[in-house]
Fold this protein.
Amino acid sequence: MEAFLIANMAPIMFVALVVFLLIGYPVAFSLGAVGLIFAFIGIELGEFQPNFLQALPERVYGVMNNDTLLAIPFFTFMGLVLERSGMAEDLLDTIGQLFGTIRGGLAYAVIFVGALLAATTGVVAASVISMGLISLPIMLRYGYDRRVASGVIAASGTLAQIIPPSLVLIVMADQLGRSVGDMYEGAFIPGLVLTALYAGYVLLISLLFPKATPGLPTEAIGFREPNGNRGLLSLGVLTAISVVFAWLMMRNSATHGADFVVFSMFYGILFAFGVAVLNWIVHRLTGYRFLSLIAQQTTFVMVPPLFLIFLVLGTIFIGVATPTEGGAMGATGALLLGAAKRRLSWDLIRQAAESTAKLSAFVVFILVGARVFSLTFYGVNGHVWVEHLLTSLPGGQIGFLIFVNIFVFFLAFFLDFFELAFIIIPLLGPAAEHLGIDLIWFGVILGVNMQTSFMHPPFGFALFYLRSVAPKDSYIDRVTGKRMEPVTTGQIYWGAVPFVIIQVVMVGLVILFPSMVMHYKGAASNVDLNKVKIEVPQIEMPPLDFGPPKIQ
């Protein structure tokens, strides 16, 4: 028995951790307890050196001294302030009106606003709860299928997992020992592609099952001109001119990938905002408007979150600010936006600060427990066991990626993304690096995969968030006066299944098309140093005479 324990200490330790978690013990305490228990067992068996425990205080202090993790409370606070200041409500109302009678318009609006909230909040709970409270009653009012409505809201909220400034990307970069800015830049385009896939699914449903995603009735559409026209032509012209202006500003730029998208967006919204302000001034002075109501409303609602995206992501991408500094600017910008809308109050700030403190403490406790566990795991050569196990898989890099993603996908049924990031990623990173896999690419692949942890029935947190705000009993709609049926838990779960499949497809796309991520390296990464040839030009030189000197 003793020989068996010595030979299999690492796998037994990992299995013991899984058992503790399945029993229901808190993750942080399970990690710390398993680490300490097996440390003492290893000392008794002569398999673990007691000197390793002397490094424990330094490891715990290293968690407290990690500047990168400061970005988590900043981005959390920013997201909570924006969510409570009514930005999501304004966006959903305006974008929903913009799509109007288009079939599936409300679903498109939820996906679009979900992407914007993801890029400004980075907090899944804030996105799902706010959109569930605001958009779900409207979608039910106008006859949306409950499964489609629930799935769209939950999936759009989880975009905060992969679209920067995602909290999971911060943790992922820290655990893999890579730059958060590079991780953000690498994940930007996959996040946009995933958003497009969600919208494509809604389009497919609206074509195959038109009654499942009806458009708004004509009487529910506001922001009309005095003559009854919606004024969409004015908005289209403003959008086209803004795009042209952005292209003119960026045509000679050397930026690429996510940098190009963010800076183009900045120049476009700067132009549109300037035109909208000019229209407002002219209307105040003369009573004449050259922009329609919908164009002006859309511009004024869209500009603040888009500008905040540039303030946070743009400064990180160009290297002006670190993620921690970008988070601090984002938190300050959120407070300023809330004050500008006259929705900022002491109670709102207190609630946001309390929620931020709870989440930050949760993360730090898990990380401290993970440090204790990993210290013992490394002390019994567990990292060597994991690396040999993973690098010996058939199929090389592709075989490794397939196995790891299937493994993480099934673990996501039981663990959330913080637990996966702190427990699993440190074990997988060295093996991936040993196989020559770029760790930013690897991190983005796992980030998309771990996004499913929020959507897995029956333990997906996004489904729990939506369940907490979805109607559990029949109710009277405040607008139509009709009795509405509740949303069942089964409908929420079935609505999530297609989006889990889409997320799995997205994992495959990122593996098949690594250029979606690898653009973060810039143009320099396209140069293969092994193929560089340096040719020295031939120079004619006079012959050298080393004979004895000639006497004249």
Confidence is low (pLDDT under 50) at residues 523-552.
